[in-house]
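Problem: given the chain below (228 residues), write out its structure.
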Amino acid sequence: MNFFKNGYEIFENFIDPNRLDIFSDSLYNKEVVCYANQNFFKLKDPYVQCPEIIDLCLTTEVQKLVRLLLGNHWAIGGCNLRRNLVTNNAENTVTFFHRDHNSNNFIKLFFYLNDVTMEGGPFTYVEGSHIDRREAGWTDGSRWTDEQITGLYGQDKIKHLTANKGDLIVANTTGFHKGLKCKAKERLMLTINFTTEQERYGKFKLSKNTLDKLSEDDKFRCRFMEIV
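Solution.
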């Protein structure tokens, strides 16, 4: 596995694509919030509205991978279930390079809910930038242009991670990354953070009904959530 060196890894055919349909359906059938100058929608309180995300987090396949990358003390962190639109609207958020600073030890899993080519706005990562910090003046939340990042790392380090529904992308998003704008096709995507400590940007809500159905070990994996 090249994850620790490169900062990302793609696992092809990680999950049956049909198991992901419930998440894309939620983006059309449940309460969403519009963001970034109407460029994308996010499901509000995703663990509450779509508790099947918790089921996905606790599958044997996901737990085995997360344990390999974070050790035994891992827990489920933040979540983002979103639908990126094809628009001409300007955006200066996640389509610009940035680093995440959610916690000191976390990873992010990306499940594309449809096949994503270059026309569909793939997740883009600067290989090795989680270790090799070349920028000066970085602050939490700052945004960097393509020209700045190319000047720092070179074009060959910028990797556009196209993948199919059912594939899994794992990334250490303390490295520079962004999402390309969708050119001709919407991108539906579920991202889930896994962490060993409370993330800095608040707790995600989880219903007590969902928590009560879990085993004691699985409840431990939800220890950083706000129970409602």
